[in-house]
Specification:
The chain is of the alpha/beta class and about 260 residues long. It contains 9 helices and 7 strands, in the order H-E-E-H-E-E-H-E-E-H-H-H-H-H-H-E. The relative contact order is 0.14. Bound molecules: zinc ion.
Amino acid sequence: MSQPNRWDKGELAKFQVASGVKGYAVDLLGGGKLVLFTEHYDPRIARETDALLQWLGTPKGFTVNLWWRDDPRRIAANEWPTARTVNGGWTYQNSNTIVVYRSEEWDRVLIHEVIHAMGWDWEMPAKPLACWKFTDADTLQPALFEAWTELYAEWLWCAWHNVPWNKQYEWQLYQAKQILARQKTTAWVEETNVFAYYVLKAVLSPHIGFLWIYGNGRTTEERYTMLCSLVQPELDKLREEARSIKPEAMSLRMTKG
Ligand SMILES: [Zn+2]
């Protein structure tokens, strides 16, 4: 996410005051800061945060607030993804502070939020393009740029962990099809960026080499042309394949782990 979301309903505060949870403020060697709320302090978390911030080149004083909560992103076969089961952090663009509130995939979320905080996001139209064939009944969240942010976060995460990109792409395709299969006959309604995070990202993914080289266009017109020509055939194919797929219980974590 790029902005605070509404899922938590006091969950973070509750975790923070739970017995056994303590706060630790750590000055990292590279100049960053970690504020960690956890039941069991593990120095490896601070070392990994320091290494990631240095690798990503964040400025001195950049602060990671990390709530080490065990809260896996699982959904049942008949369950639709929600803010509660998808998101793991937030920040503001061009800020020097990020928040990560799940231990699951905390490093992938850290990278994602650093992209927002450093202002590395790419522009994207706020509404689905006509070529993507949504109907008036479909309601999408406007932060479609999250698809780029997440795609590049996963690419960097794979580089950091030496995960082959084709393995990551397989996981993206699996999740995209599982989610499309859950929709089938009803309108697409989402309370967080489900389409951007799981479907739009997966259809941009095979074009990542093209995107690295050519960017996403200098003008709105260039962006629309590219997003239609690259996305639409992939999206049609995924929707078609999803028709014969049975939804199953799944993890919504964006890296397979
Ligand atoms: Zn985001």
